[in-house]
Design goal:
Layout: H1 2-17, H2 27-71, E1 104-110, H3 112-148, H4 153-178, E2 185-190, E3 193-196, E4 199-202, E5 208-218, E6 221-232, E7 235-244, H5 250-262, E8 266-267
Parallel strand pairs: 5-8
Antiparallel strand pairs: 1-2, 2-3, 3-4, 5-6, 6-7
Helix pairs in contact: 1-2, 3-4
């Protein structure tokens, strides 16, 4: 995704660089498109490389989950082993990673109406976050460009809000792809990841830390909010996502909180 947008920005920026009438194009605009496009391509390449490095570990993880599911009692969803601090072994470079067996905490199945409720809440919440994020980046970016680059107000506003809106749209697209509906919707809760309709969403490994779990009451239902934290060059950053608690799994939701609490994760009680 980032590589695609990076190429698009370079396609726009390169012609600006060689335009015959360069006076009509602000230099900072050309630099922005070229720099942003290059950074997106490099970032996308590094992300793809890291994903490939984790592919073997994910396959082993999935195999372990499948083995546990096939051996579990059909009427009992919760499979809790000994209580120990949560490990971050979702990368094959970790020592003894081949002996690491994740716990299956729960396997929830959703009806289509329940899944639609969950995706609606996620979409609305991400959209609201995107609006505020775009305003913040737009305002802050405008001031920075005008102060440090002597850009005029119009150009600074356009560049800043363009970047803010682009980031917000990317977050919404990624979230929608993760929660894409199928005929048989289910979420498997494990030690290090959620498996959402067969797609892995890592919640704890060498790069991502499960910061906390929170119970959220909403007009569309009750949700478990997961907060993930990871390091960036400018310090730690966070992102939250929510999982709907179907009424039939209310008791299991409490056990999920107890499981992660025993693993050392901060939780907000029901």
């Amino acid at each position: 995704m980032f590589i695609f947008f990076g190429i698009c920005m370079l396609i726009i920026g390169i012609p600006m660089l060689f335009a015959s009438d360069k006076g009509s194009i602000p230099p900072i605009l050309t630099i922005l498109f070229l720099l942003s496009g290059s950074l997106m391509i490099v970032g996308g390449y590094q992300t793809n490389k890291k994903n490939k490095e984790k592919e073997k570990a994910l396959n082993d993880y999935q195999q372990s989950i499948a083995e546990q599911l096939s051996g579990a009692e059909k009427k009992k969803t919760i499979i809790v082993k000994e209580n120990k601090t949560i490990d971050s072994k979702l990368e094959h470079t970790e020592p003894n990673a081949e002996n690491y067996k994740p716990d299956i905490i729960a396997n929830w199945h959703y009806t289509i109406p329940e899944w639609k409720k969950m995706t609606k809440e996620e979409r609305v919440r991400r959209t609201k976050e995107g609006i505020w994020l775009s305003i913040f980046i737009g305002a802050a970016g405008t001031l920075v460009l005008m102060w440090s680059r002597d850009a005029n107000l119009g150009i600074a506003l356009f560049i800043s809000f363009f970047i803010g809106i682009l980031i917000s749209v990317l977050k919404i697209v990624i979230s929608s792809n993760e929660m894409k509906m199928t005929k048989n919707n289910n979420i498997i809760f494990t030690t290090n990841a959620l498996i959402i309709n067969g797609k892995f969403k890592t919640i704890n490994d060498v790069d991502v830390n499960l910061e906390y779990l929170k119970f959220v009451k909403h007009e569309l239902g009750n949700f478990i909010e997961f907060s993930l934290q990871w390091a960036t060059r400018r310090g730690p950053t966070n992102d939250q996502f929510r999982i709907l608690i179907p009424e039939k799994y209310k008791d299991e939701a409490k056990q999920i909180f107890e499981y992660y609490k025993a693993k050392g994760v901060r939780v907000e009680e029901f």
